[in-house]
DNA sequence: GATATATTAGTTAGTGATAACTAACCAATA
DNA sequence: TATTGGTTAGTTATCACTAACTAATATATC
């Protein structure tokens, strides 16, 4: 868990940009090197293998995710407010880093390699736990309806968010994600409130 | 739009199985040929290029989708019933063909090639129209709540279904999709009904 | 403080594996 | 006799990665 060097951070950022822009097959050591402006073997002074670069990409996602989680836990609002903040944080994050949205919500791209798959499933599990707990907390506090399983509510909330982000991504970021996310949240709020 | 020959169908099925099982990078002409038990160049007697094979894979998805759509339109139920049948049909389809679920809900894999991307976006649009119309119909018929935009309802319904199928797929098909899909639908029904 | 040494981050050139695809040929069948 | 669907033996391109070398800088020793 060492801090990456500036050059390593640069390589990771270029990798994310290349994957988002031209797809995983385009991510080659050669293209990364060209983008940075150094030779191909120079990349290997900073990472032992391509696999390690992809692990570092996922490591970056993990870091960002943990930062958001810790922020949420410090603020310590009620269940509903925690979910709202989580959603808005993510819409803001993706708006500022569209490449990140494109790569992070296309998990299949990492699923070929066992180690990468394990790492990304870990990140997903983290998110799930966070939201699941917030939903259950909201149900206990009577801010969220209890006639529907927390599990199903989770599917609504996260599923609709993911679909929105995916549509935004496929559209070439053609609409204002923060605005659409906000109106989607209003609809979510109406539906998950108690009768 | 010619009917594919038996050998072409075989190649398409093998391609889907390989993509689902080992990921897109594993889909090579060599592996397809090995799986079928013929030589590599023999594949080129049936398809001009690898790209054409992938187009045929998407053509297969399109055919399946159109079949479901026509079936739905013939039955001509009310809006809510149409949505319900659509969902159950898809859960049944995926339960019988897990490979199809794995590939069809991983659109990013086709997004590198412009032509493939266009085709898959067309299929997605078709689904969207179908469900969107059913939702609006249900709202007119007062079976579905009108205090929430059809667009947002679409995100709930489809988003939650996609998330469920993806989780099923990532879990290695570890639970009964038809059963979980059915309980998810009950929750959907409660939430989208009018107050 | 000057000098020797080690480390860092780069270079050019090249390796072996594998990808998509082609050429040329052949046996069975329409 | 032409077509269909196979074969073996290649081609060219590109991949991840290595070998060997070098300039510049940091560090240690006298």
Keyword list:
homodimer, 195 residues, mainly alpha, Tetracycline Repressor, domain 2, 8 helices, 72% helix, elongated, DNA-binding
What's a concise summary of this model?
Two copies of one chain form a homodimer. Chain A is mostly helical and 195 residues long.
What report would you give on this structure?
Two copies of one chain form a homodimer. Chain A contains eight helices and no strands. The model of chain A has no long low-confidence stretch (mean pLDDT 96). Chain A has one domain (50-192): Tetracycline Repressor, domain 2 (Orthogonal Bundle). Chain A is mainly alpha-helical and 195 residues long. In chain A, helix 3 packs antiparallel against helix 4 (79-96). In chain A, 72% of the residues lie in helices and 0% in strands. In chain A, 32% of the residues are buried. Chain A starts with 5 loop residues before the first helix and ends with a helix. The first copy, chain A, is elongated and about 65 Å long. Chain A has helices at residues 6-22, 29-36, 50-75, 79-96, 98-104, 114-140, 150-170, 177-192. The structure holds a DNA duplex (30 and 30 nucleotides).
């Amino acid at each position: 868990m060492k801090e990456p060097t500036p050059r390593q951070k640069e390589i990771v950022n270029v990798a994310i940009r290349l994957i988002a822009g031209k797809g995983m097959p385009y991510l080659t050591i050669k293209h990364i090197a060209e983008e940075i402006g150094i030779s191909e073997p120079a990349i290997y002074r900073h990472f032992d293998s391509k696999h390690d670069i992809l692990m570092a990409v996922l490591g970056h996602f993990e870091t960002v995710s943990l930062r958001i989680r810790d922020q949420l836990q410090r603020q310590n609002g009620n269940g509903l407010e925690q979910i709202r903040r989580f959603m808005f944080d993510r819409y803001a994050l993706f708006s500022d880093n569209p490449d990140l949205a494109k790569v992070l919500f296309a998990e299949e791209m990492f699923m070929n390699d066992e180690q990468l798959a394990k790492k990304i499933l870990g990140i997903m599990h983290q998110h799930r736990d966070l939201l699941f707990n917030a939903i259950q907390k909201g149900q206990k506090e009577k801010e969220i309806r209890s006639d529907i399983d927390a599990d199903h509510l989770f599917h609504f909330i996260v599923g609709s968010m993911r679909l929105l982000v995916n549509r935004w991504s496929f559209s070439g970021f053609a609409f204002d994600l923060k605005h659409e996310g906000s109106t989607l949240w209003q609809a979510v709020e109406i539906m998950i409130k108690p009768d």
